[in-house]
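Trying the structure run again after the queue cleared.
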Amino acid sequence: MRIAFMGTPQFAVPTLERLVADGHEVAAVYTQPPRPAGRGNAQTPSPVRRCAEALRLDVRHPATLREVAEQDAFRALDLDAAVVAAYGLILPHAILDTPRLGCFNVHASLLPRWRGAAPVQRAILAGDETTGVTIMQMERGLDTGPMLLVRETEVAHKSAGELLSELADLGATAMAEVITSPNAFPARPQPPAGVTYAAKIDKSEARIDFSQPAVAVERQVRAFAPSPGAFFEHDGERIRVLSAAIGEQKGLSGTILDDRLTIACEQSSIRPALVQRAGRGVMDAAELLRGFALPVGTKLA
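Done. Tokens:
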């Protein structure tokens, strides 16, 4: 099948690799333009672009698809289908209508729950027991198209990074099934009940509020690991918490309870396991305490 692939982050890479491995003709890869990143703000290509270039595919990164010239260029590809995975640009009607079989999207949630930009993080924060991927036929609404295939997995105690990696592989396999035999998967409208929206993550949400129950804090840590990283501040320094366990000790919320960095929450406590100081590598809590003063009784804001 002759395909255009449209995606940007690492989540999309396994799907692109699978399409190529299965022998589909990828006529062009669309991805977001390079963005400044790192201390030097160097222009950094997306993971999809790096993958596509390694596969020697035609890579395009328009800032918008609303211009007539870009739509004409897309139309000239003479596509059977377009495959979309976390692309990051809204596809206008002229793009959606161009491929003969339409545009297929791999979305990292069990639609209609968690439509939108951050479905994995929102599922963890909400305490969902299961999540998954949905392959859907795209239409003009935000993740509203009919569903073709759904695959589920447990959220368990996975971080957002771990869950995204698992869902990326699950989505690649599911999309490969659909693209290989699109007529074998009849479209089903999304049910009207159970619609929720996964708003884009604001970095301010990553600040840990120890007045919450420990279970909520632990979810916050997992939802924002590895990026942007849940954090607390002390003596003007930000400490990112990348993994943590719920403890049984109790005390005044935000107070350090012992020499293992157990921190009291509204109910019980949280014990950070992996942390990171600004400009430093990831370390365990014991290593942090050897070089950063956080004595028992310290109250964290």
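The chain has two domains: 2-198, 203-291. Worth checking whether this holds up in the mutant runs.
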